[in-house]
Amino acid sequence: MLSTIFLLKGKNFHDLNQLDIYSYPEDIVRNNNKDFIEKIIFGHDQGMIREDCRSSQTVFRNHEINKKNQDNFIISIPIPQKIDENNVYTISINSKMIIGLIFDEEDNPYDFKEIFEDLSYELINNEKCCSFEDELEIENLLITLFIDLRRYGDEILAKYPEVSFQPVGMFIKVFLFGIDESGKTSLVRRIKTGQFDDNFFAPTRKFDIKYVQKEKDFLAFWDIPGQISFREKWLKGIQDSNILVYMIDVANQLRFEESKQEFWNVINEEVTPEIPLLILGNKIDLINHSKDNNQKQLTRIETEIIDYFEFHNLRDREWNFLFTSVKTNYNIETVLNTIFSLTSHI
């Protein structure tokens, strides 16, 4: 699968000290070892970026450059490379920048040729989402490309890792969202491995897809970070989902208003009509909950949360609310059962 996307930008590609390197979600320069970068640059064009990428051999496939529009970036055709057991696929932008994809060894980058070209041209020239002068714009471009390419690989090419050769039952795309530090990644880890890492407190800063097999059925958990800079990407990842799972940290009431606002920002976009919704009130263990607690207390807290978040205003979709504690494994199996129940019609 696609593991990393990167951009190289600089006045002199032969001087790595003057090269700006952006990558997502992994850092492609580890321990100051820039040998990998040198191999990418050399492999892209035998050691140099062509000064003229406007020749007919490098003009972007299936897109005619409008000669009257001098603002268009010139995008080369993708070039495949094999570097350190990774498949690398690179394009140049105006012969001054390189955007590259890194795939696992077993993946064929040619499968992504058309989608890589199409998305790059659409984002850079049609939507003009990046001038390549602002770091935040570059980061957003890379994240957008990464999400769309991963979705293509996982949903269109149907290259699902960990899928056995048993007869396939349902395949369910679970879009898991919520603001940062609510416990989303820990939930997926608990479901997939049965483990909870008590020392894992760093907020997730990368998009990820995890696959879980339950008998003949498969769930793909799309976990997108909840920090503010990532939230505008939720609507891109949410497409083609079979169920939405929204997680709230019920122990942190100071962020209820923020969580509520972000939830309705997504729902009110109306890009997810009729998709079932599961709302998880996580970290119930932190508000003195235990299995011996009076059910009336839980019911009261649930009613207060539903009223505060105005979930009763949800229309035209089936939804459910569950308390969870990823740490204590409370209701985790019920989460899975509810997901299957809410998606039983697919």
Q: Summarize this, please?
A:
The chain is of the alpha/beta class.
What order do the helices and strands come in, and which of them pair?
Elements: E1 2-9, E2 20-24, H1 35-45, E3 79-83, E4 86-93, E5 97-103, H2 113-126, H3 135-156, E6 171-177, H4 184-193, E7 208-214, E8 217-223, H5 228-231, H6 234-237, E9 243-249, H7 256-267, E10 277-282, H8 295-309, E11 319-323, H9 332-342
Helix pairs in contact: 2-3
Description:
The chain has helices at 35-45, 113-126, 135-156, 184-193, 228-231, 234-237, 256-267, 295-309, 332-342; strands at 2-9, 20-24, 79-83, 86-93, 97-103, 171-177, 208-214, 217-223, 243-249, 277-282, 319-323. With 346 residues, the protein is α/β, with parallel strands linked by helices. A hairpin with a 2-residue loop joins strand 7 and strand 8 (217-223). The radius of gyration is 23 Å and the shape is elongated. The two termini are 26 Å apart.
Question: Key terms for this structure?
Answer:
Rossmann fold, 2 domains, alpha/beta, 346 residues
